[in-house]
Amino acid sequence: MRKELEVILNSTHDAMIAINKYGVITLFNKAAEYLTGINKDYALNREVEKVILNTRLNYILETGDFELNREQDLGNIKIITNRMPVKNEKNEVIGAVAVFRDITEIQGLSNQVNNLKEMQSMLEGIFYATQDAISVVDKNGINLMINPAYTRLTGLSEKDIIGKIATADIAEGESIHLKVLETKSRVKNTKIKVGPNRKEVIANAAPIIVDDELKGSVGVLHDVSDIMKATDELNLAKKIIRSLEAKYTFEDIVGNNILLKEAIEKAKKAADVPATVLLRGESGTGKELFAHAIHNASDRKFNQFVKVNCAALSESLLESELFGYVEGAFTGAKKSGKKGLFEQASGGTIFLDEIGEVSSNIQVKLLRVLQEKEIIRVGDTESIDIDIRIIGATNMDLEKAVEEGNFREDLYYRLNVLPIIIPALRYRKDDLGDLVYNSTRKLNQEYGRAVNDISDEALEILKKHDWPGNVRELENIVGRAIINMRLNENKIEKSHLPKITEKYKENMNMNIETRKHEQSFEELNEVLDSTEKEYITKVLDENKGNKTLTAKILGISIRSLYYKLERHGI
After folding, report:
1. Which of 137, 145, 224, 253 has the fewest CB atoms below 10 angstroms from its CB?
2. pLDDT value at position 350?
3. CA 325, 331, 333: angle at the middle one, nearest 5?
4. What's the rounded Cα separation, in Å, for the pair 240 and 223?
5. Taking a C-beta distance cutoff of 8 angstroms, is the pair 110, 127 a contact?
6. 3-state helix, strand, coil in the chain (%, to 5)
7. What is the average pLDDT across 408-427?
8. Considering only CA atoms, which of 459, 464, 454, 456 is closest in space to residue 501?
9. Burial, 497: exposed, middle or buried (Cβ in 10 Å; 0-12, 13-18, 19+)?
10. DSSP secondary structure string, 146-183?
11. What angle do CA 339, 367, 295 make, to 5 degrees?
């Protein structure tokens, strides 16, 4: 029986140490040997306190108390111990026993379990909180999980999906989950329709692999309408940005002609200071290109660049667009009013193309902007401070316009702080080769061609032309030449060029005759203005300059009279 008991005690996983009433070790099983690293033969029949340091068995022997589930360190391991007294039939303590086991591994597993629980909780939080519609299937293609976003997108609840095959949500198309399970590979950007409302979605899925074994598939659905909306918004944003940014730099200005280089150097200097710039030059010489370059080389380059063609808008529309308006300023005005372009571009640059075409009324307001750095919205009386850099451009002879009274002299001097004259193409024909190459490079992309050269003969023909339309006309001629070329040709020859010289002379003769004919007549507005000016002057003289009486005789308000006096320069 003793032999059997010894076998049992030595085969148990728990370590056991027993002492008699004298504190001498009487039992020391194999598990105790393993955990303590002490040989059984050494331990037996020795006092326990000499074999096991810091033992508590003597305390149990003295007190007869129990110590249960006590954790303690034993060398490099952590154990949990139960210590109990051994009593005889008279309830006398005749010994003590300690039963203990290694919990280091168990504690590590417990920590792993806790970590896994935390990770699972975190993943579940992400799974249920994300706006992406997610579904998970097992290796057999049976739905295990869906999140709330999936239900919102598809209109299908857990009851409709969980426990059912992966095709349960498909209205049109193939199941991405089944494809993944079949191929063990990702499936990307697949268009399918899901749910009772046949919602169109973009689907992506990936395999779930654990220890090289396929366990299932996880899929993510994206609403196509959301993607299209985002794309539309992005395109709109890009369009707005393109309209509010300067696209060109000085690197985009092609040519080595000395007149052009002088203009570029002057423009670069202008970029370094906040002064108003006036770009002078014929139509098609590249005034807008210079305006973009000046803005991009200035310290305002990260702010807005707004272009306004003053000749393309009526006076009232130009005024409301430039200066904005308040609620009720005119019929059709927005209730909240509207910011003008000067306000929108504050901190940046505004490019006023064809500035010589603006009316006298707007000239007055522009002068205020240049002098006071402030604007007044249409229909308002309060001024608004702005920080704006104005670049004006015109092909008009402003000096003549000032002399004739069509352009305010004070505004002219405010605009003409930094005048830059951009030379016409007929004065820089030595740049024609570079300009043709630059034009072909742009047009090749548009026309799908590979033109990269022009023959000397063709270039000489271009040099004989006077280019009244300047660089814009040249680009038109080069484009027509490319169209005349065969697909396999890459050099512009004389035969490809349209008959530009003869056509130019013909057009010039027609224009001269037309102008002569037009000069023999005056426009109706000019006749009416002249008559009105003459009559107002006459009435004013007869009333010895009394404006109130003059306005009464003319049947107009005093405010209207002042406006007409200013408009006619009386």
Report:
1. 224
2. 93
3. 35
4. 26
5. no
6. 50, 20, 30
7. 92
8. 464
9. buried
10. E-HHHHHHH---HHHHTTSBGGGGEEES--HHHHHHHH
11. 65
Phi/psi region, residue 347 (left: phi>0; alpha: psi -120 to 50; beta: rest), is: left
pTM greater than 0.70? no
DSSP string, 19-56: EETTSBEEEE-HHHHHHH---HHHHTTSBHHHHSTT-S
Q: Please write the tens of the pLDDT for every residue from 477-536.
A: 999 999 999 888 899 999 999 887 544 444 444 444 444 444 444 555 566 667 778 888
* N-to-C CA span, the chain: 139
d(CA 264, CA 249): 11
| Phi-psi region at 305: left, alpha or beta (left = phi > 0; alpha = psi -120 to 50) | beta
Give the residue among 148, 177, 182 at the shortest CA–CA distance from 164.
177
Tokens encoding 308: 């306004």
Q: How far apart are CA 487 and CA 448, in angstroms?
A: 9
Task: Report the side by side order of strands in the sheet with 349-353.
Answer: 305-309, 349-353, 389-394, 277-280, 418-421
Rounded to 5 degrees, what are φ and ψ at 333?
A: -65, 145
Closest to 352 measured CA to CA, from 335, 334, 365: 365
- Nearest Cα residue to 373 out of 389, 350, 360, 359: 389
What's the residue count for the chain? 570
Q: Are 127 and 147 in contact (CB under 8 A)?
A: yes
